[in-house]
Amino acid sequence: MKALVTGASSGIGYEFAKVLAKNKYDIILVSRNKEKLQKIKKEIERWHKTKVYLYKSDLSKLNEVNKFYQKIKNEDIGILINNAGVGNFGKFLDTPWEKDNEVINLNIKALTFLTKIFSEKMVEKGEGKILNVASVAAFQPGPYLAVYSATKSYVLYFSEALAEELKGTGVTVTTLCPGLTMSSFFKRSGISDDEIKTWGNLTTAKEIAEYGYEMMMKNKTIAVYGLRNIFSIFLKRFLPRNFVTKITGRVLKV
Fold first, then answer.
1. Catalytic residue positions?
2. 244 vs 232: CA distance, rounded Å
3. CB neighbours (10 Å) of residue 217?
4. What is the pLDDT of residues 79-137, one digit of tens each?
5. How far apart are CA 115 and CA 94, in angstroms?
6. Is the pTM of this model over 0.85?
7. Is 244 exposed, middle or buried (CB count within 10 Å of its CB: 0-12, 13-18, 19+)?
8. Domains along the chain?
9. Contact by Cβ (8 Å): 114, 5
10. What is the residue-wise DSSP string for 15-66?
């Protein structure tokens, strides 16, 4: 039985690969950066008695998602970690449609497709675990990250609903909701280092991956990392929605 991790060449995906290897899983890693994946393969196989299989694929392109699936459709996937994701920082009217479309394709369509095909196979076997990476941004509208926040809300609600549907099948679905995390995500989203510094201390990707793995193995449906994030989400339930949106916009508009 193997574990599949998307977006595995850096950040949380890379750390998930190490956590899984430490726990004796053979791993399938997919990313658009094969050079980085090859380095990760050497590193993991050097330190852990596990096998690592690499696939280069740009999952923001739907034809490549299907090609990737055709290559691995006969693999016995026991754990699926949909980590690949991208954002697009800026005013919605100023961002190019091509970038918005990439965010929607990767964060929603690729994740939903992989979840569907592998959850079906898992249910047939009567066991399996799926972890979809959302964000604390999923809990409120995000001005200047409008499309990204909306896609992560989709991931949260879709995964939560699926978790309920799959109860009793032996297959669990966990939604991991990290807060601000040190990774290459911000650079790819067009956010500068100076802008990031105004947001305060960031959590490490290693902390997020270790927490996510633990919550997945405990069959948790929603896993929000950090007491500050949990408190913030709880507090927002009692505040007017337009007020929360306005404050979020002020924080993101730097």
1. 148
2. 11
3. 14
4. 999 999 999 889 999 999 999 999 999 999 999 999 999 999 999 999 999 999 999 99
5. 32
6. yes
7. middle
8. 2-252 (3.40.50.720)
9. no
10. HHHHHHHHTT-EEEEEES-HHHHHHHHHHHHHHSS--EEEEE--TTSHHHHH
